[in-house]
Amino acid sequence: MSAAIVSLSNLRFAWPGQAPVLDIDSFELQAGERLFLRGPSGSGKSTLLGLIAGVLEAGTGRVEVLGHALTDLSGGQRDQVRADHLGVIFQMFNLVPYLSVVQNVVLPCRFSKRRLNEVKALGGPDIEARRLLSELGLDDPALLSRKVTELSVGQQQRVAAARALIGNPSLIIADEPTSALDADSRDRFIELLSEEARKTKAALLFVSHDASLAPLFDRAMDLSEINRVKETA
Prior knowledge:
Layout: E1 4-14, E2 20-30, E3 34-38, H1 45-52, E4 60-65, E5 68-69, H2 75-85, E6 86-89, H3 101-105, H4 107-111, H5 113-120, H6 125-135, H7 141-144, H8 153-165, E7 171-175, H9 183-200, E8 203-208, E9 219-222
Parallel strand pairs: 3-8, 3-9, 6-7, 7-8
Antiparallel strand pairs: 1-2, 1-4, 4-5
């Protein structure tokens, strides 16, 4: 394995006025590694991903992603690291309701010159967006021009995945990304994530409560193995 792409040390986090959610001495994710992280609802999985993605700010400790110490950066600087290097599939999707399917997928290229340059070499944002959507089973031309609010939950989930993958991110973070998919779509979804990660040598951090998915990854672990807070609200 190569050097760690994510490194956490002495990380503590609590929501205001609440008991701690995370208490992690150390954690590393290696470049190119595909890690399955399991934990029940309320265990702090989404909070941990928010800290690694720079959406949340750690209370104490250090969060390093791709050589950037997120704990030393401003909110705007963390946003730029995420825009340039991370592909995040949020649990709530965070799609823009008034944009079409394709417009949602190409959105990261509007905020990152690096990702825009990556897709230019592949024919441009629209072409790469349509390729990713087709790989995920969304290849109906009429569907691609619709607003995302007109899609089913499962279709929206796949749009969120395509948006995360566009522009060859160095780290792909997926928060319960298969919860609305049937078994066949789920397996194809994970296969595509793995294919895209291998193609660009990106790391994949995949979070789910479904332990049956663990064999599909290089490494699997339970959040309780690193989080000393055993129960959270």
